[in-house]
Design brief:
heterotrimer; A mainly alpha (about 290); B alpha+beta (about 500); C mainly alpha (about 300); A: about 290 residues; mainly alpha; about 0% strand; B: about 500 residues; alpha+beta; six-stranded mixed beta sheet; four-stranded mixed beta sheet; 18 strands; about 30% helix; globular
């Protein structure tokens, strides 16, 4: 006889905390993430220079491990003579902000739609699948191009556009997961005893998809940040002179053969952020664990 | 256990791939050895019907394939005979040409007056859709007077007429053109030029071969290179890599920072061109409410921007800061004008005088300019309290907004079709048309006289007055004249010209 | 079955119609096509002439219906830039993109699935860690960076492989590897997490308790269900590959559809853009339908669904 009670000792907060401390993924990922978040929050105190202050006489100075560098610009300067270290520090704000903002919007939309489609099936599923397919066929760049032409490039335009566009992966995955969960015995059992549809949806099915959703979130964070880079490069993203790692990568693209550090540094920061998010996400997935059926 | 890392993984894959292909390797396309010039463009050339081409790339190819009645020798600045042996103005609105004999097209057909008449009469019709109306709207009709004589009847006086006849109006073979039209010409270009097109993948790859039957006495004769292969490679870094490895012999439009880096490894030539960068102010925009409706504000903005530093930093090479709304190399571009030197103090004083001592906020749209230049301008203006909101747009949407009077400031550039005459720039922006957001009747009057007069002194005098007034009123913040950096193989002799048209029939190997 | 197909056809038609209408509107919103076609040196009257010649002065709805009418008869119009039928231009370039996309997809699959399974068998083991690093770097490195690094290493330092053009089959090696490295991480992680979830379920534990060999457990029981989300993702990934090819095609100078789409977008070559978007939407409908069918086959419990 299967135990259909979804509540087990593993989901108690104290237990989760205890398990987290022992899980290397959560610890390492979480620490890196925390550091980056702190850097972003305390940027004005940490950064040695104003990230948008330009000095045309000091363009493209290399970082401290190369010859022509200057001590007050540890990581060198960019094409406009702006201090790279300061831009890196402030860049954390934009990357984190855009990532969070977009994921919040697109995640909410996508998960809701996917849940509804996967669980209810029928014409609800048809309509939502139609919306997903329509969204997928629409090139992001075209929407961004039109949005920028209408409203100008800015952080908010970017978050809105991406948020309203990137829900598809959430929807697709959640829909598939919901479909397969729908037929699990414990769900059927709940329906048999007359539990309300939305209770089942949000209290039973959704928590069971945690691991899958976590994975999609961690996938999407990197996707969003890179998309921001691509759009910023095309002039459709963050408005210059705002420092964002994505924009810095794009701006360094012309110099990739000669001054590779211009891309390598924000690129590595990005990598680190994504690694941290993934480690943390994976660790949390392991810690909260799939609910025993 | 072997040391696993992504780098190791990638290099093992690479080693595997390499071992499969090592023997085969890359096809040898060394330039000098097979007398083949390997060229790369970043932008795709348009179909090879000159009259429908707007971009330089297509026009460069077209000028190797086709010829016009006349030709402009850029070293001397003179117009010389090409397909026409001689010409004269028989009245203010008619020109008569005596055509050269013995000229053959690439397909063997003879060149006669029929070709001139048929080509020109076709391309001046509105249905044909010639892209740049400025090149043909001055022609009323063309008549054949004899097998080797034609007459052009002009619809209006136009000082740029002779310039246009010099290679901007190529002559097509009348049989082929009347049968196959623009599409046919683009698919199988047939001209009288020094090179003929051997094969093409539209927009991707073109192969040209020297035409041995190119007519004697041509200003384009003397080509030494046998083959020219042109490819489109959108990624500049890939172009640099291939240039350094020897697979490419000629690339252009290299940004100044990268040109400096490449200097030690390949041959770099920098040459100035007609194109200039500018910030246009629209006093009438936004219902005349914008701060820049006030002349002092405009002058303040120019004083506040360190244009010389920006020019040095971002234009580099042969570029110079400008004080006029035209390129100094253009006929009519008076240089004795009011100039506004970099002086932030003065800027602040002027702003205070105009009532803006606390500064103000303004949107500036920029298009087709490197982003750092716009950012540099914004940073300079921020120093005197003017917050510039930068809005990068595609050229088509930016210019649309400009014409709709929605923008107080527009930062872009203008190429004047590569021609060294102010008729191709000033009246576009100040002559009263749709791109003129200043709408100064006095200016429009002077420019109209200058554009249509046949007397060079009259033209120069009127242009001079116009240029001076534009500077006095600070209608424009002129930035700098562009230069083009060419990346060349070490053993290539190439001469650049200020009209941005590459002439490979002059090039040779060292 | 017939009902199912006709329903899907209806969906396909609706999607294509909606998408093409939206993209038509967006193209007009993102700039004036007449100005874009007239070129940067064009004066206002040149743009006007273009506007009249191509009918851009008509109301947008009329222009759209005109396009729809022709499209339904199979006439996708002529490319404004190239002045040849759209079908011809697309036909010339679709082969390159398809080759690139399919090869990258297969390569990614071949690497991702075994890696994901191996990682799931021993979570937090060294294979898992390596797979994670591979996944993260694959995702976080911009594809143009990877592509350019490949060009520098294999084109400049060691002249082993061609770095531009698709004239020889070797010209595909670098682009395919770069593109699949970009697509592989998502597939790997979904496989891994799906496998982990499934391996923890009762019936798999029961199978193991019965003493079945690991390979049977994996292939007979676990994989079928772990792969469900992967199948859905794969449909999206294939489409993502096609759009990722825009960057790769530009970097490696390949004559493909992605590059054509981007350049046509910039120069407002409406007929080409509309045609490509039409093809994209048809492709997505096809892929999602296939994914659903595949899902139904793999998981009999879903067959009752819609």
């Amino acid at each position: 006889m299967t135990d259909i009670s979804p509540v087990s000792s593993e989901t108690q907060p104290a237990t989760i905390w205890r398990k987290s401390l022992r899980n290397s993924g959560v610890m390492i990922g979480g620490t890196i993430l925390a550091i980056i978040i702190l850097i972003a929050i305390f940027a004005p105190l940490i950064a040695p220079h104003d990230p948008v202050a330009q000095d045309l006489s000091r363009r493209l100075l290399p970082p401290f491990w190369q010859d022509r560098s200057l001590p007050e610009h540890l990581l060198g300067t960019d094409q406009l003579g702006r201090d790279y270290l300061s831009r890196m520090i402030y860049g954390a704000r934009v990357s984190l902000g855009v990532g969070l903002g977009v994921i919040l919007v697109s995640g909410t939309i996508g998960i809701t739609l996917g849940l509804l489609a996967g669980y209810f099936g029928g014409w609800v599923d048809m309509v939502i699948s139609f919306a997903i397919t329509t969204r997928l066929s629409l090139p992001i760049v075209l929407v961004a191009l039109a949005a920028v032409a209408l409203g100008g490039a800015s952080l908010w335009t970017l978050i809105t556009v991406l948020g309203l566009l990137l829900w598809d992966r959430f929807a697709v995955i959640t829909r598939a997961a919901a479909q397969s969960l729908r037929h699990q015995e414990f769900i059927m059992g709940l329906r048999a005893i007359g539990a309300g549809r939305f209770r089942i949806l949000f209290l039973e099915i959704l928590p069971n998809m945690q691991s899958t959703i976590l994975v999609v979130v961690t996938l999407e964070v990197a996707n969003v940040i890179l998309l921001e880079a691509a759009l910023s490069f095309l002039g459709l993203g963050v408005r210059p002179p705002t420092p964002s790692w994505g924009l810095m990568i794009s701006e360094g693209r012309d110099n990739i053969l000669f001054d590779p550090w211009l891309i390598a540094m924000p690129g590595s920061a990005l990598c680190l952020l994504v690694l941290a998010v993934n480690l943390f996400g994976d660790g949390m997935r392991d810690v909260t664990g799939p609910v025993r059926k | 256990m072997t040391h696993y890392s992504p780098k190791y993984f990638l290099s093992s894959v690479a080693a595997l791939a390499a071992s499969l292909t090592f023997a085969v390797g890359t096809p040898a396309m060394a330039g000098k050895e097979n007398n083949t010039l390997n060229v790369a463009f970043a932008a795709e050339p348009e179909p090879l019907d000159t009259y429908k081409i707007a971009g330089r790339q297509g026009l460069i190819l077209a000028r190797h394939i086709y010829d016009g009645l006349l030709y402009k020798d850029l070293d001397t600045g003179e117009i010389v005979p090409a397909l026409a042996e001689s010409w004269e103005f028989t009245s203010p609105l008619t020109m008569e040409f005596t055509l050269r004999k013995g000229v053959k097209f690439h397909n063997g057909a003879d060149f006669t007056a029929n070709d001139v008449v048929q080509t020109l009469n076709t391309v001046i019709t509105p249905e044909y859709g010639t892209r740049y109306s400025i090149s043909v709207d001055w022609i009323e009709s063309v008549e054949k007077l004899a097998e080797d004589k034609v007459r052009i009847n002009m619809s209006k006086p136009f000082a740029g007429a002779v310039e246009m006849l010099a290679d901007a109006l190529p002559i097509y073979p009348h049989d082929f053109f009347s049968e196959n039209g623009s599409e046919g010409m683009a698919a199988a270009p047939i001209g009288t030029g020094p090179y003929k097109l051997v094969s093409q993948e539209a927009g991707i790859r073109y192969e040209m071969e020297r035409f041995e039957g190119h007519y004697e006495g041509s200003p384009k004769s003397g080509a030494t290179i046998d083959n020219i292969i042109v490819r489109t490679m959108p990624e500049m870094n890939t172009q640099y890599a291939e240039l350094m490895s020897g697979d490419l012999d000629w690339i252009w439009r290299i940004p100044p920072d990268q040109a400096k880096q490449l200097e030690s490894r390949v041959q770099i030539i920098s040459a100035p061109i007609m194109r200039i960068g500018y910030v246009g102010f629209a006093p009438e925009s936004m219902g005349g409410d914008s701060p820049i409706a006030d002349k002092r504000v405009r002058q303040a903005l120019i004083h506040a921007t360190n244009r010389a530093a920006i020019t040095d930093a971002f234009a580099g090479g042969a570029s110079k800061m400008l004080n006029t709304a035209c390129n100094p190399a253009q006929f009519g571009c008076e240089q004795d004008v009011t100039s506004y030197e970099y002086d932030p103090e003065k800027a602040r004083a002027l702003l205070a005088e105009a009532g803006y001592e606390d500064g103000f906020e303004m949107e500036m749209v920029f298009a087709a300019m490197p982003r750092p230049t716009a950012e540099a301008v914004a940073a300079d203006l921020a120093n005197v309290g003017v917050t510039l909101i930068l809005n990068e747009q595609q050229y088509s949407s930016g210019i649309g907004k400009w014409r709709a009077k929605e923008l107080p400031a527009f930062f872009s550039n203008w190429g004047s079709y590569g021609i060294g005459d102010a008729v191709f720039i000033l009246s576009n922006f100040f002559g009263g048309g749709a791109d003129d957001l200043v709408q100064d009747p006095e200016l429009a009057e002077w420019l109209n006289v200058a554009d249509t007069a046949s007397d060079r002194d009259v033209r120069a005098e009127n242009y001079s007055m116009a240029v001076k007034k534009i500077a006095d009123e600070a209608y424009w913040m002129p930035m700098y004249n562009f230069n083009v950096n060419y990346g060349l193989a070490e053993d290539l002799n190439f001469t650049p010209h200020p009209d941005e048209f590459a002439r490979w029939w002059i090039s040779s190997w060292k | 079955m017939l009902g199912y197909i006709s329903k899907r056809l209806l969906v396909a038609f609706c999607v294509c119609a909606t998408v093409s209408a939206i993209s038509f509107a967006l193209m007009f919103m993102s700039g004036d096509p007449a100005i874009a076609i007239a070129g940067a040196g064009g004066r206002a009257q040149d743009a006007e002439a273009v506007r009249i010649a191509y009918g851009f002065d008509r109301p947008i709805v009329i222009q759209y219906l005109d396009w729809v009418g022709s499209a339904l008869t199979g006439d996708l119009g002529r490319s404004i830039y190239f002045n040849v039928p759209v079908t011809e231009i697309i036909g010339n370039r679709v082969g390159v993109t398809l080759t690139l996309g399919v090869l990258s997809f297969l390569l990614a699959l071949v690497v991702a699935v075994p890696l994901g399974i191996a990682a799931a068998l021993r979570p937090n083991g060294w294979v898992d860690r390596i797979a994670l690093i591979l996944a993260v770097t694959g995702q976080a490195i911009p594809s143009f960076w990877l592509g350019l690094m490949a060009i520098v290493v294999f084109g400049v330092w060691y002249d082993w492989l061609p770095i531009s053009g698709a004239e020889t089959w070797q010209g595909y090696i670098l682009p395919v590897i770069v593109l699949s490295y970009y697509a592989m991480p998502a597939m790997m992680r979904i496989t891994r997490s799906g496998m982990i979830d499934v391996l923890a379920t009762d019936y798999v534990r029961a199978a193991k308790a019965k003493g079945l060999p690991m390979s049977t457990v994996i292939f007979r029981h676990a994989l079928r269900n772990a792969v469900l989300p992967l199948v859905s993702l794969a449909a999206v990934q294939l489409g993502l590959l096609l759009s990722g090819s825009i960057v790769i095609e530009s970097v490696f100078a390949l004559n493909g559809l992605g590059r054509l789409a981007w350049e046509s977008l910039l120069r407002s070559d409406l007929p080409v853009v509309q045609a490509i978007i039409l093809i994209l939407s048809l492709l997505y409908v096809l892929l999602t339908t296939l994914a659903d069918i595949l899902n139904a086959i793999l998981d009999p419990r879903l067959r009752g669904a819609s």
